[in-house]
Amino acid sequence: MNARLIVFPIKGRNWCFSRSVNPSAITSESESHSAQASPTLRGLWKKISSNGKPMNENAELIVDFISDKMNRAWMGFESAPVGSLKNKIHGLGLRLLSGVKPSEILLKSITKDVTKIEITYPKSLNPRLVRQRLRHIAMR
What we know:
Elements: E1 2-11, E2 14-20, H1 23-35, H2 41-51, H3 55-78, H4 85-97, H5 102-109, E3 116-120, H6 127-139
């Protein structure tokens, strides 16, 4: 899968780094999530016990299972009625997430299935400087 990273200067040395989103990928991804049933512990156990793969691949299955459960719960909190406890927890979570550095969010948005990243930036920027800044963000 390919990803596009958009880089543009805001003011002076401040730059914006953003991963562009392919609209067709969003619809197909959301359709596949809605079509899939919620994963169960029994299904996870069957995958782990029957695949005979190394421990690190099984750990990835567990991490994916937990993150999928958390994403589904977060979407439930987001759609909760205004004033409910779930809605208040969602608001608190958003306030906590606002303290996360944007560079961390950018790097987190690039998933494991991305094999190639296309970097788009204005011609006024030096390509070497763009690569250097991205490398610095990734290493940090």
